[in-house]
């Protein structure tokens, strides 16, 4: 069985009167990638930085096994330092080896001798990730790692994350990019109102609660929506009637039976399931209406 890389129990943090974290718990095993999600201001950065030890927590327990690497949401280096100098400096401070393969993959060599102030936002983020990988950490924290990266930078980072996972590195990342989360992560921890509102795999989040599907149907003449029990007519779009159903099989059967019995020709039919982003928005909206 894989070993635990991170255990967080009952993490609490307040800023003055504002209680931001009200008992957040999570665990991460080696080789596992988890996403910390939540709307703006949910406390993701606060949680990450309390776990990293960069902010003091009010209470709670944090256990980290092995070496920790961190890429902060925003960080800076001296304006005139060059990428290779920064990497050497951090290597000497940290006492570990540089990850040359990752540096090549992240395009650090191509940055040449440009000073830090002349790097673009995306180039700075790549450099900060290379710095976080010095000493081959067994646990890595990434706060919105692909923010500001171009398509190639994003793909390179995803390849890196896959490579790190393969060698057993556990990764906790905060992200707003649902496609990235769905593609990379084994686990989602969703923060809402200072607590963990959901913890599980992306597919478990998709199946939780009212999932449902949308059926788009194009017919020769409109169907009588009043006759439906398993589908709800929600409107029209580009010549298609739109229906929502919680029971896809029953809903489809009902629509097609109705069309046949009314002598209506079905010209096209499409089914769309809820996306991870839809599920995330459901959680975020529940928070707003509280
Ligand atoms: N140093 C601070 N002092 C007071 N309040 C703070 C401080 N840092 C954060 N907050 C507040 O705590 C809450 C959580 O902030 P945090 O940055 O952790 O959220 P987040 O989920 O990372 O947000 P985002 O998605 O926008 O990055 C916010 O309401 C924020 O205004």
Produce a short descriptive summary.
With 290 residues, the protein is α/β, with parallel strands linked by helices. It has helices at residues 44-52, 83-94, 100-105, 121-132, 151-166, 178-184, 202-207, 248-261, 276-288, and strands at residues 4-15, 18-29, 33-37, 59-64, 68-71, 139-143, 170-174, 187-192, 195-200, 213-219, 232-237, 240-245, 266-273. The protein has two domains: 4-207, P-loop containing nucleotide triphosphate hydrolases (Rossmann fold), CATH 3.40.50; 213-273.
How would you sum up this structure, described in words?
It comes from Bittarella massiliensis (ex Durand et al. 2017). The protein is an alpha/beta fold and 290 residues long. The protein has two domains: 4-207, Rossmann fold, CATH 3.40.50; 213-273. It is built from nine helices and 13 strands. It has helices at residues 44-52, 83-94, 100-105, 121-132, 151-166, 178-184, 202-207, 248-261, 276-288; strands at 4-15, 18-29, 33-37, 59-64, 68-71, 139-143, 170-174, 187-192, 195-200, 213-219, 232-237, 240-245, 266-273. The two termini are 40 Å apart. Bound molecules: adenosine-5'-triphosphate. The site of adenosine-5'-triphosphate (ATP) has 10 residues, from helix 1.
